[in-house]
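MFS superfamily sulfate permease-like transporter: structure, please.
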Amino acid sequence: MPNSRHIDLASLRSDLFAGIVVFLVALPLCLGIATASGVEPFAGLLSGIVGGLVVALLSGSHLSVSGPAAGLVVIVVSAIASLGSFSAFLAAVLIAGVLQCVFGMLRAGQLASFVPVPVIKGMLASIGLLLIVKQVPLAAGLSEGLSASAASLATPFGAVLVPALVLAVVCVILLFVWETPRAKRYALVRIVPGPLAVVALGIAATLALDAFAPAFALPGEQRVALDALQSFDTLAGALAFPDFTQLVDADVWRVALTLAVVASLETLLSLEAVEQMDPQRRRASPDRELKAQGVGNIVAGALGGLPITAVIVRSSANLNAGARTRLAAFVHGALLLASVFALTAVLNLIPLACLAAILIQTGYKLAKPALFVSMMREGTDRIVPFVATIVGVLATDLLIGIGIGIAVSMLLAMRANLDDTFALAEHDDHYLLSFRKDASFLAKPMLMRCLARIPDHATVLIDTERADFVDRDIRDTLERFIADAPRRSIAVENVQWPRLNSTPKKRLPWARSPGATS
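Here you go.
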């Protein structure tokens, strides 16, 4: 939080208002992400509180807001299932926080810039697809144990709760309509965030069904279930703690590494996006941000919260609401803390179908069809790693999928780089073999294809003027061709070799290789 001496009255007013707006945006997202992750709603709120009260104090960013991220839901669900318990998962979150602090100390904040854009977009698109798939059952109120009633519909997948399905469909439509330019003409739409409007609609529907159509009322398992907290003592009792005996488990470390890498990538991408939107173009140290997020995840893991990242949805809402300093993020965290004491009864009226609708829209934004069309138009070198990342994530997990995408990008870049290492020009029986750049051993297949096109009785000019480095394999291949040239009546002219295995600042004088003829 900035020094109070630097906060004027106008900034204070703007930050307080922005903090309230971000709180209204973050509240349903924290609940929805926790529900989608299969954990208690309190775990999502706790992460939002830590993101506001801890990370905001340590971060160097003026506008970034941290909390539980929809992009980590997939990792959380699979990690809890594979590790067998939430306490073991919390140990992984704690380790991930330590790893992020190490990343920051090693100045790894710039590493995200080395990850190809198609891989990042592929990672986000795959997360979006998984979010949608995993939230559809919750949006439909699917339950195998649901008894047949007027409010349910039997399907091969289980009983669908009709009120939940209708409410989810209406909420999804409302969320998309809420963001249209025509809707933005109205002051209410501009002031009230879409997720908050959906939550308000859900609460109103719950109250109306309870009062006027009990047969169609949503059962308790289809609503948020927060325990009432009367004091800080009861708050302490609601906390969950990691199983420290799991710190030596290799699977826990694997999950921790995945969380640390993906959370760091999402944080750095969010930080860059917010800085580009900031009218004052203020920059924050990415290394400091990684350390702040690391401390936040250590605290979240120690107290029973979900993993934390900087979140672009909340950060952009913070910016658009007029935030000027980190005080706005701190205020949003304080309000989330107050809500667990004062708003429990209201929060427990929220249907899970509404929260599922919010995450379905979030997933759509990450994997919208226009993104796939755009990547296809950008060419093979963009769409192939993009699709490879998506397939890799869907078939394995996020970390392996990212690795597959990076590997494919490197192979494509290598191929593009090698394809034009040599150029072979032909005029009658004269051939010009030009080195267009430095030649590594990877270019050897292309060189052999060029040499194979040169017939007997030809005259060959070899120009290495543009190459400062020629790998020994390339030189050996050419020297074998030159040595065989007299047998094929081939004349080889003007061969000059740069110094092997180095990049000299000055060229060596021309020298003829053994076997060359003029």
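Notes: Confidence is low (pLDDT under 50) at residues 1-6, 500-518.
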